Amino acid sequence: MLHINREKLKSSHQLIWFVIDFLMLGLLILNLSFIVWDSMYGFIAVQRLLEAHLPALQAAYHPIHERFIFYDLLFVAVFLTEFFVRWGYAIRAKVYDRWYFYPFIHWYDLIGCIPVGSLRFLRILRVISIVYRLHQYQIIDITNTRLYRFLNFYYEAFMEELSDRIVLKVLTGIQDEVRRGSPLFDRIRHEILSPRRDMLADWISERVAQAAREGYVPHRGALRRYLESRVDQAMKQNSELARLNYLPVVGPSIQEALENAVGDIVAQVIHQVLEDLASNANHGFIEDIVHVFLPERDGRPAGEAQNQALIELILEIIDAIKGQVRVKHWRAELP
What we know:
Helix content: over 70%
Structural class: mainly alpha
Distance between the termini: 19 Å
Largest sheet: 2 strands, antiparallel
Number of helices: 17
Shape: elongated
Oligomer: single chain
Order of helices and strands: EHHHHHHHHEHHHHHHHHH
């Protein structure tokens, strides 16, 4: 339902113009209805239908149909009068930089007054213009109307589909450029990624540390037991160590001591590596890796494998963006 802001209407110093807008809006709707009805009445089948079922209406309206141009010109006279009054006000109030700008900006008002065929339907643009102006000045609120929600929904859906196709086309073109080894890849590497190596190293270091803390620390005991069991099993299957059992007296003791020592060493090494990854000590290691992939521009050129790895990274990032672009948000809003 259309909402009218009466408080805003009362306090506005342009009350007279808003009253004129409402009057013109009513006349335009009446005139357009008259045009549509007369166009339908112009069909012989409609005239015969009215003559058969509503002869009084047909007899009363037929003279009006014969003089349709005259009655339409009455509306046109009102529309032109309002047009020139607004033009004069625009000149006096210096709304535009030049006095002759008004008819060019409001061309649909002027052309719609030409009583020729389809040009009359340009008056619909005048209706839209008045409604938009009243809405812009907060005199009426059309956002809660069913018609506005219906039109706005399909407008947004159309614009989303159109923009998605354009973005996907652009991103696919960028991927093709990167694959061909165009200057775009060098610009991404040297002008975008390389200056942010420290930031990337910090971010990756923090992510690795967080993953190590959350994945390793709570399961440290279980991982140690698993490593010891695997080392135990591997050493028992080793033929060289199995020969220690043949040594008299000390053989089994030596084998058991070796198994425990190797198990402890492996578990301790893995524990220390993961502890380092879970702390800030991993930063130097991560930074070295980032610097290998993103060397200084004037330094040693990156190898083919490094370039290919970076290209794959960029392509996968773009693929992820394309996947997100393909999501149809407007479908989730379907009633």
